[in-house]
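Good morning,

Attaching, inline, the backbone tokens for the sequence recovery test we're adding to the shared suite. The designed sequence is right after.
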């Protein structure tokens, strides 16, 4: 992957990060009070997954990645950036490792692992959708 594409991948991921933060604000301010924890977490995870797929679909022409290997590399890059951000930010906030790792269980409707899977596969899925919808 060229440096130009890598920078574009980072820029698109930064956009996903902004959407994830907005989704978190929506979850905390609207979904949790309205639906309760399990439903809010599931709904928030589904919303974020849909947003990530949408961003992947819209950004592929700009990213100019075509091969399956490149699409998977973009997804793995987004996953790595997400994990580094999540753990770094959590540790910076003073959270313990058990607190951080709790997000990786399906406790109380948490589907964070599904969101991470979607993050990883979304460039590949979006690439297939773009070919299919031509």
């Amino acid at each position: 992957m060229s440096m130009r594409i890598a920078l574009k991948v980072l820029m698109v991921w930064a956009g996903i990060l902004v959407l994830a933060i907005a989704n978190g604000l929506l979850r905390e301010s609207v979904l949790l009070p309205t639906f309760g924890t399990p439903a809010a977490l599931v709904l928030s995870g589904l919303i974020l997954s849909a947003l990530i797929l949408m961003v992947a679909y819209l950004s592929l022409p700009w990213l100019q990645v075509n091969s399956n290997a490149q699409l998977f590399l973009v997804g793995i890059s987004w996953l790595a950036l997400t994990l580094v951000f999540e753990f770094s930010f959590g540790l910076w906030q003073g959270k313990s490792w058990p607190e951080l790792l709790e997000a990786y269980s399906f406790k109380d409707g948490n589907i964070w692992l599904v969101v991470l899977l979607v993050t990883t596969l979304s460039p590949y899925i979006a690439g297939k959708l773009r070919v299919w919808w031509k």
